[in-house]
């Protein structure tokens, strides 16, 4: 029986770098628990402008930085930073870029309005993680994604990076939280996210003028190996889509005792 010995965590929120939420809390303590159980892990999140670099002792990793990612015919430099949570003996890698992340807030502005370019920010974040993991020369067994900003990961792993030796055997788990965004992505989102290996037929869940939270979540479900439902407030539409796709799923809403069930779920994907 194969074990998932190397786990890649991709999250839009990790405590203590952002205020504590369900996503931030799980993304902080689950990687630590994985590590304490003798399994390897890497953790990534966006370097939002509200994260204090001096207080949290972030520093750039020069050997990992320097690549440009092209989105909508524009080059965006990829900057990689890292910090340590000393009490957990755990490192967190940060995806940074002046165009997308040098703002005072995360996904909404000071007036509570969602940023118009959140669609491009999620593309840059997920692609940035993929390219950085390749530079680290570290092949994960499981990629566990937390939050809607990571929703493109299953698509990219299964279609754009499916022949890459660092990702071709990886299983992708997507956790669904009660973290719905309200402003649909713009009509160019589908065009902007295209990479070699991704075809129009892979995007059936978002083939519409505007991409809603439910549509983006369905896209993640379409390409994931496993789904974890973490909250009772998930819409019936999303639950029905999980059932229709027949994807392996775990409904587990206990926010305190999830580590062992999650690890068992990872391992079950290989059997």
Tell me what you see in this structure:
By secondary structure, the protein is α/β, with parallel strands linked by helices. It has one domain (6-46, 117-268): Rossmann fold (3-Layer(aba) Sandwich), CATH 3.40.50. Helices cover 32% and strands 21% of the residues. It has 9 helices and 11 strands. The strands form 2 sheets. It has a 9-stranded mixed sheet with strand order 3-6-7-2-1-8-9-10-11, sandwiched between helices. A two-stranded antiparallel ribbon has the order 4-5. The longest helix is centred in the middle third of the chain and has 19 residues, at 118-136. It is globular. The mean pLDDT is 95.
Uncertain regions spanning at least 5 consecutive residues: none
Give a short account of the largest sheet. Answer: 9 strands, mixed
| Structural class assignment | alpha/beta
How far do the termini sit from each other? 7 Å
- What's the CATH first level? Alpha Beta
Radius of gyration: 17 Å
Count of helical stretches? 9
């Amino acid at each position: 029986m194969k074990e998932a010995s190397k786990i890649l965590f991709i999250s839009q929120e990790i405590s203590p770098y952002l205020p504590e939420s369900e996503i931030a809390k799980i993304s902080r303590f689950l990687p630590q628990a994985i590590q304490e159980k003798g399994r390897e892990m890497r953790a990534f999140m966006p370097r939002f402008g509200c994260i204090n670099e001096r207080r949290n002792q972030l520093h750039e990793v020069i050997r990992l930085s320097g690549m440009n990612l092209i989105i909508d015919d524009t080059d965006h430099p990829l900057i990689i930073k890292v910090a340590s949570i000393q009490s957990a003996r755990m490192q967190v890698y940060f995806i940074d870029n002046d165009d997308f992340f040098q703002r005072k807030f995360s996904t909404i502005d000071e007036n509570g309005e969602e940023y118009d370019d959140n669609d491009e920010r999620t593309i840059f974040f997920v692609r940035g993680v993929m390219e950085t993991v390749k530079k680290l020369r570290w092949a994960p067994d499981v990629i566990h994604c937390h939050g809607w900003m990571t929703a493109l990961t299953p698509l990219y792993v299964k279609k754009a990076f499916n022949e890459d030796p660092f990702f071709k055997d990886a299983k992708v788990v997507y956790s669904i939280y009660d973290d719905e965004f309200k402003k649909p992505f713009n009509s160019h989102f589908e065009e902007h996210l295209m990479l070699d290996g991704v075809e129009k037929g892979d995007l059936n869940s978002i083939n519409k003028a505007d991409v809603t939270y439910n549509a983006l979540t369905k896209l993640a479900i379409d390409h994931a190996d496993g789904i974890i439902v973490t909250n009772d407030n998930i819409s019936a539409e999303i639950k029905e889509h999980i059932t229709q796709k027949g994807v392996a799923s775990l409904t587990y809403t206990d926010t305190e005792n999830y580590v062992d069930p999650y690890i068992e779920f990872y391992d079950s994907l290989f059997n």
